[in-house]
Amino acid sequence: MNLDLLSYDQVLTELGPSRAHLLLGNGFSVACESCFAYGSLFEHAKANGLPDSCLSVFDRLGTNNFEGVMRLLEDADWVAQHYGLIDGATPSAMLTDLDAVKKALVDAIAKTHPDHAHDISGKKKDTCVQFLGPYHNIFCTNYDLLLYWVEMHGHDRLGGRDGFDYDIDDPDAPYVVFSEHVGGDKGIFFIHGALHLYSVGGQVRKHSWVRTGKHLLEGIREALDVGQYPLFVAEGTAEKKLIQIQNSGYLSYCLGKLERIENCLVTLGLSFGESDQHIANVLAQNRKLKRAYIGLFGDPESPSNLDTRKHVAAMLEKRKTLLEAKRVRNELEIKYYDVSTAVVWDAPDGSGKSLTF
């Protein structure tokens, strides 16, 4: 079935002055810097010691998708235990490789990431601030610092809060801690964690360049060198991602906030794939969400877009079931738009258009 896509300007017109929210996936970051594409991250991991046993799994799948490989390793461990091939008492080779792939992904993002906020041009950041401006709450599934840098660059215009403040038990600490909900204020939420966040004894902390005088990436890389990893939801399946989210007060708050937003949601750069089903589920369960605008890049009939549409259709079926059971109050309307018509970052040709996602 052919699908007519809205332009992004049409989306903004339909949103009007009403409160709307934004959900960003990896396409948001890749549109700014190609280093965030899985292919670039895989090449870095490959060149920096990713074990041969892990590389063989990537080769077997014919992919550079870290989540797909993690999902396969996790499933392989389950199958091996189910058929008695391993006893499960000690970590299997599959789980050892799964952990290696997770760490390789974190390291690749941290080591290939632009070093400083000024590595992203002021014009790019200004354009992105304008793009983010209409939205009340901004949710992000990415691990990088781009959204954080843009928010800091345009804080006077965006005014988003993230719930982090000084530690009342250690006011002079070189970090800030997650200590308060943002309530009805504008907010920014990292649903899957991010490079600048980490956990110590259950307390979620944020690296602070203001308090240390160090660039964020410098502090993050120093922490990695001593084995302190960022707060990352790097799991292969939606089920495992949800478990990790539920085990963190900060992450569960972020996902819960997505389940409580009202009116309309716009998504950009999110595929709604198998590993995103925990997000699709909270949107289906949201009692006050009326409409979602789903961004597609390229031909709506391409395999990747058809896959996205299939998963969105499954989300609507879940919504229908909840509606029949009177657990939600209204249907969820879905509209698709062409993300290439959204001005997110300045393009290399200076046109002000995002050329690729």
From TrEMBL:
Domain of life: Bacteria
Pfam families: DUF4917 (PF16263)
InterPro entries xref list: DUF4917 (IPR032581)
Name of the protein described by the UniProt record: DUF4917 domain-containing protein
UniProt source species: Novipirellula aureliae
Lineage of the organism: Bacteria, Pseudomonadati, Planctomycetota, Planctomycetia, Pirellulales
